[in-house]
Amino acid sequence: MTDPAIIFSPAARFNPALRRALNDILGGSAASVLAVTFGLSYALLIFTGPLSPYLSYGIAATFISSAVLAAVIGLGSSLPFAVAGPDSSTAAVTGILAASLVERIEAANLSAPLLSPVLITLGLSTMLTGIVLCGLGLTRMGRAIRYVPYPVIGGFLGATGLLIVMGAIRVITDHPVQFATLPRFTNGVTMSELGAACAMALVLYLTWHRSRNAFGLPIILVGGMLAAHLAFRIAGISPEEARALGWMFQPPPPATFMLPWHIDDLAHYPWFAVPDLLGNVVAVIFVSASSTLFNTTGIEVAAHREANLERELNTTGAANILSGALAGYAGCISVSRSILNFSSGGRGRLSGFTVAAISLLMLAIAPELLGFMPKFVLGGLLLYLGADQLHKWLIESRKRLSKLEYLSLVAIIAIIVIWGFVPGILIGVIIGCATFAFSAARVESIKYSFDGAEYRSSLDRSRDDQEVLLAHGGKIQGLNLQSYLFFGSANRLYQHVKKLLHERPECRYLLFDFKLVTGVDSSAAYSFAQIKRSAGDLGVELILVYLPAAAEKVLRSSDFLGDGVTVIPELDHALEWCENELIAQHQGLAQEEANLRDWFAGILDSEDDADELIRRCQRLEVEAGEIIVQAGDAADSMHFILDGRVGIMIPAEQNGMTRVRSLGRYTTIGEMGLVSQTPRSATIQAEVDSVLYVLNTHQFDAIRDEAPALSRKLLTYFVSVMAERLTFANRTIAVLRR
């Protein structure tokens, strides 16, 4: 691109300051073309329908807003080349605010004045927007809007695009888009006007949308205007007839500037409508804040410059306060105008002042231009702007969003258009939070799992201990957790643990590694309580490692930590502890099995028979006070008492129980019932913690069929035991007869 300074004077070649100033003026002039064109369309978008007679005031408000925003933001922005003004999104929500006010005024009194209340509403809402923006900037809370779910932002901006399209249709046809007015759109002239506007929007899409040339847009609009006038001349339609048919705008009077802050205007303001307008005011604030942040970010990316978001919010807030004081409406930094200025060579703050000066100049020229402008030309521009916004959020976003997120975006657009911005925001945030919770719950909270046979501590052990861990390492199960654990992901963890304990019944130690966990909420603590309950029912010990202090506080407040739960700082130490427990238990079981084998070998006079009997028995651990068999139950088993003591209990007076006999280690009980198949005549209860080996009827019959020799030895043993007990009973009776 040729340096524009060369065009003007040789002195500029040697004066860098003058060259920079010329670049800024040229870039600002190029950006002004967009500012003027968009400004006219925004004025028509806001001051339409019942407000059409006051279009001259709307033009004044538009270009005063453009001038103030361009000057103040150009002076204070952290991006010196930034160009600001009313934006399509802010204009759309401002138009909805104005239309809502007019609707409520006319519903109360058709003869009530409209201009002053509308200007007051625009001014107050703009000043309130500026105050909120300054508050966000001063408190550094502006970045909080980045936490609003993306589908909510997309739905909000997509809805503004649809509202711009609906506003464009009203500008073109003078009819609002409602079910009641649909028959009016079947009129031939109306259909022709809409068709011409759609053709204009298509031309803009096929040409300026792709090139974005600085002067492409005005050339296209002027070309459309000339083509329309040529068509009118060929058809023999005069400009007055074209206006009467609705093809052209009525020439408005010169732009009229008015400050509505008079005592009488404020006294007659319809304050009763304020509660109903609050939602639309919130929409103006929300759109202005989000547009400021998103547009600034877009300029950063396009121009490779870094901006200060807090400064942008403060500057935009101050600009809106001043614009509102002058009865203007809200705006913000513009991506298209700023990038056009930057591409044209503008780098300094003079570009913003150039846009402001040209905007003020348009206060005198704009009404005359509008008088020659066919409706479909500016209406087509509005259709293009709205359709471009809709395409961005309804079509392009489909590639970036999941199916659920996209459906929520479409739902938010529909809610805003049908019920308004506040319900749309609230329901959108709820949908966004629910979508996030659903998506986050699908994130796997378990990074990987392991057992003690494949993953061990760093402690070197003897070959015997290693064999024990290899054989019994499955009793140690570990889960490496990750991400944030809340009600969704924690419930999935609980379901996984239930399945794991069902598939691994041998598990006795369950480790949870919290090293990669970023947080635990209170609802997740309930899931851990369920895990503790399920593990406790199966005799499984829970071990927590790398437990963060915050997570420990949450789990402790829910009474999760306590019996059955052990907290160990490191995974290696936790594995070592579990391994030591396993080895100690195995050593105890090995000694227990040796004692049992010696006992059985003594009563059967054969080690092979002892091994066979051990194979047929089932080990049973009982706690003190636990009932082993109940009187009256079927006698389907007998018990070998290897360790501990059990008592034979019979009913006593007042529902009590009396012990008639107690049996210690290396004794048997229930052999008579096993042989005779008669019901239990007494209750057997553990008096201390005991270890018993149970031989049930099925195994006893199998021994009789498969190992007759062993069966005979058992019967012989039973007879000897009963003979000893009978001898003891006889001696007791003899003593009692003395």
Tell me what you see in this structure:
Residues 606-721 form the Cyclic nucleotide-binding domain. Its main location: membrane. The chain crosses the membrane at residues 25-47, 54-76, 118-138, 150-169, 189-208, 215-235, 277-296, 317-340, 352-385, 406-438. Residues 479-578 form the STAS domain. The chain is of the alpha+beta class and 738 residues long. It has 3 domains: 16-396, no CATH class; 448-585, Transcription Regulator spoIIAA (2-Layer Sandwich), CATH 3.30.750.24; 596-737, Jelly Rolls. The protein has a 5-stranded mixed β-sheet, with helices on both faces. The protein has a 4-stranded antiparallel β-sheet with strand order 8-15-10-13. α21 links the parallel β4 (476-485) and β5 (509-520). The radius of gyration is 44 Å and the shape is elongated.
In short:
The protein is α+β, with helices and mostly antiparallel strands and 738 residues long. The protein folds into 3 domains: 16-396, no CATH class; 448-585, Transcription Regulator spoIIAA (2-Layer Sandwich), CATH 3.30.750.24; 596-737, Jelly Rolls (Sandwich), CATH 2.60.120.10. It is elongated and about 140 Å long.
